[in-house]
Every structure is written in C-alpha cells, then in structure tokens.
Amino acid sequence: MAEREHVRVAVIGSGFGGLGAAVRLRREGVTDFVVLERADSVGGTWRDNSYPGCACDVPSHLYSFSFAPNPDWPRTFSGQEHIRAYLEHVTDVFHLRPHIRFDSEVKMMTWDDEKLRWEIETSSGSLSADVVVSATGPLSDPKVPDVPGLDSFPGKVFHSARWDHDYDLRGKRVAMVGTGASAIQIVPAIQPEVGRLTLFQRTPPWVMPRVDRAISGAERALHRTLPFTAQARRGLLWGLRELQVQAFTKHPNELGFVEQLAKRNMMRAIKDPALRAKLTPDYRIGCKRILLSSTYYPALARPNVDVVASGLSEIRGSAVVAADGSGAEVDAIIFGTGFHVTDMPIAERVVGAEGRTLAEVWKGGMESLRGASAAGFPNWMTIIGPNTGLGNSSMILMIESQLNYMADFVRQLDVLGGRAALDARPGAVAAWNLRVQERMKRTVWNTGGCTSWYLDPSGRNTTIWPGTTTEFRRATRQVDLAEYDLLRAPAEQKAEVDA
Q1: Which residues of 19-46 are buried (b: 16+ CB within 10 A; e: fewer)?
Q2: Cα(130)–Cα(153) distance, integer angstroms
Q3: Residue-wise pLDDT tens digits, 374-384
Q4: Entry's InterPro entries (predicted)?
C-alpha cells in the first residue's frame, strides 16, 4: 500500500456487508475505493467460523444477495463451506479482487476537520478516504469469559470461531461452554468421536426441528433455466417470515403455540424427565434466538454426554467447575460464548470530529441514525449497525437496505460537490432511536423474560430491528439531508464568504 494513498471510499471488511458495499459502489460508478480486510481471504464470519457442523439457520435462497442469485445451492440450509464458496464467487464475478487489500487490519481511523477526510492507519500502511463504510459486522470478534483459573488450564482451549483443526478430539474429555447457535451445531458433530462431552448450559435454548434436505438436481436445473422460479422461491421464504414479525414485535403471547411445538420436539428425543427439566427454558420462545436442529437433543441423550445446568464458574487444574459446584476433569475446553456485539472493538479505533472514539460516544449504548450514521462521525457509515439485527429472517435483506442508503449518501455528496461532508445531527439520531426503543418495549426480546446478547449492559436492546424488513427498506431508501449537518472545508467556506 502506497504512503498516504487517497481514495473516495474505504470499506472495512469483506464479509457479506463489505462485498455488498463494493458491488454497489461499482454499480454506482464509483471505482475509486478499497476494501480493507484483516485476514488473507474474503468471507467474514463465514471464513472465521469453520467449526464442525457449521451451517446457516436461514434458508439458502434467502441467505444470498438478490443481485447475485445462486441456483446451485446444494441444500435448503447450506453449510459454511458452501456460503464461503458463494462469497468467493461473488468476489470474482463482480471483479472485486483488485479493490481488496488483504492482511490490512485497521488500527485507527481519525477524522481530519481541515481536509474533511478520514486518515486511516492499517497493518500494511496508511491512506485517507472521503467516506468510510465500516462492514466489520457484529459477529467478528469472539468473546471469551474471564474464568478464574483459565490461564493455568493444562489442556487445549479455543473459541468456536477460532477452531483448532490440528487438535484431535477423538477420545478426549471435552467441555463445551455455551448453548447458542454454534454450540448446538458443534455438540452433535463432535459427540460421536469424543470420549466424554460435558455441556455447560447457563440458559437452555428453545430448539425447533431443522427441516433440511438436499436440493435435487432437477430443482437446480430448473432454477438455472428459469431464474424466475428461484426468485419465486426466495419471495415465498421472505413473505412467510414477514408474516411472523408481528408475533415477535407486537403479540408475543401468540408464540405460546410455537413453544408447544418446541416442547414436543424435545420430548421425542429426550426421554429422561430429569434431563428434560434441565433443557426446558423458563422464558418466552423468541426472547433469545430460536435455534434449529434435529440432532442436538439426540446427541445430548447419548451416554457419553453430561449436561451441567449451570454456567462455568472456575477452573482448578484440569477440572472445570460450574456455579452449582458440579464439574468434570477435561482435556479440552471449547467456548461457544458468542461475540462482542454491543461493544464492537472497531469502535475503539474510530476517532470522530470531537476527538472522541466511537466507543466513548457509545459508552451508554450504541446509537445511530437509521442503523448507519453516528453523530460526530462525518462521512462514516456502518453496515449492520445498531438495531439492524433480525430475530427471524435473513440479514442479507437488511444489508441490501443499508447498501441503498449508502449509495444515496455517496450520491448526495456528489450533488453537493466540492469538499463536503455530512454529519448526522444529534437530534435526528436521538429521535430515530427514541422511535426504535418505543417500538421495542412490546417485543418478545424485551418482554420475554430472558437475558440475551441482544441487550447491552444497561439492559437496552441496541441490536434488533423491531419491525419488518419492508419497513426498514422503506426507512433507508434515501438520505434525508434535513437529518444531517453539511460540513465544508475551511478554504471553501472562505471562498463562499468572499464571493
């Protein structure tokens, strides 16, 4: 990377959000941009998460870009390797590789008030950009709990998102910590080969059957020959999920029927009443993400699996000990404990117009305008920002809506001309978030009686969008300049005064 290279737009990350931004910029005629990627390949979370059994819990035809349909998905719910291959394919089809700088982790981004641009320091050099699009994603930095004694554990330790494929689990005594989306895929994948598996469950999840199957060659041929059939399939999958939203956002009590289906799913596989009691949640279904698996419960019922219905409390030598005092001697500990979602590390590396980092501004909770712009951070946008997550549908739908907003943001700057920047007005940010939080009060995520990773330390839901994807697309169709302050470079301000 050349010293002090300047680009129109710098995109951070090459997962779905970053690659989508790159495609959209090219379609808007913007070719003066770079994609800064800290790893040596594209894929984001689908590159990093390569644990056994890793797959998506959103149907394949909905978990893909509308502008890059894939008629050849092999299964209705695709595995990690297929999604990663899809992202590599998108990178090549849309000729994005010349724009990507691999092994270029962003160390710091600092706003320059005089030049109205971002000064960016990376592990491979420095550059500047008029606009920054942060697409690092909320599922990029693993969270490992600070467990007393962990540093002195003599065995193997790793997080599910940093799987050690060189470590042989066969015959080992393994502790799996966590019962989220990753854990329920890992447990049935490793259970047949480990000697003993001890699952530390702080809170049991609601689990529904995963109705997965291979997509036949005839179906794939039909989608290739008649693309509208794949579009219809995608539309049906999308529509069904849109219809579900009201139960999550306005009428959580209607989800009781779904709870009964989940309980029946458990009873089919778990015959032991004591184990069933451990695995039965005490909160409304949907409060935490509903998980999909047809193999999780059968794996827990196997004789080499123990379920500890208590969180991991400490480690004494090779013994892992739960909060209730129970535990086991193990050879390896696998953390399926999620990610830094409400405290994204990238926020510590973004320094805005007032000299404060985004992490400092967001100390009391993440807030942005329409999930994209933060006050005091001109010409900076985030993809999958605050309150853009979904509890029941495909995040690609939300990403594409944010790409629409990003495209119009860049267009507006072009129309304004000269050295210009747009900074979200604090009042506009506050008004948007007030509306979001008011709507959030009735949702299952806030009223369901659970503590989830959707909530920040103060208990505020800064993660989920409390509406349909259609509503969000409408809200992000275009930039409202009344919600932004226009900034001009000092030299241009003086020229306007002199004129």
Answers
A1: bbbbbbbeebebeebbbbbbeeebbbbb
A2: 48
A3: 999 999 999 99
A4: FAD-bind_Monooxygenase_sf (IPR051209), FAD/NAD-bd_sf (IPR036188), Flavin_mOase-like (IPR020946)
Is domain 150-211+238-335 given the CATH code 3.30.565.10 in the classification? no
For residue 364, count other CB atoms closer than 10 A to its CB. 11
Q: Could you tell me which of 459, 480, 493 has the C-alpha nearest to residue 373?
A: 480
Residue 69 contacts residue 396 (beta carbons within 8 Å): no
Tokens read off for 40: 């040596």
On whether the CB atoms of residues 15 and 87 are closer than 8 A, the answer is: yes
| Nearest residue to 240 via CA among 485, 48, 59, 432 | 59
CATH number given to 5-141+340-498: 3.50.50.60
pLDDT given at position 497: 44
Averaged pLDDT of the chain? 95
pLDDT in tens, 446-466: 999 999 999 999 999 999 999
Distance CA 140, CA 356 (A): 23
Judge contact between 223 and 71, C-beta under 8 A: yes
On the question of pLDDT at 298 being above 60, the answer is yes
- The boundaries of every CATH 3.50.50.60 domain in the chain are 5-141+340-498, 150-211+238-335
Q: Which residue in 381, 336, 408 sits closest to 131, CA to CA? A: 381
Burial class (CB in 10 A: 0-12, 13-18, 19+), 359: middle
**Is the separation of the CB atoms in 141 and 306 below 8 Å?**
no
Q: Residue 436: count other Cβ atoms within 10 Å of its Cβ.
A: 20
Q: Are 479 and 401 in contact (CB under 8 A)?
A: no
CB 101 within 8 A of CB 81: no
Statement: the pTM of the whole predicted model exceeds 0.85: yes
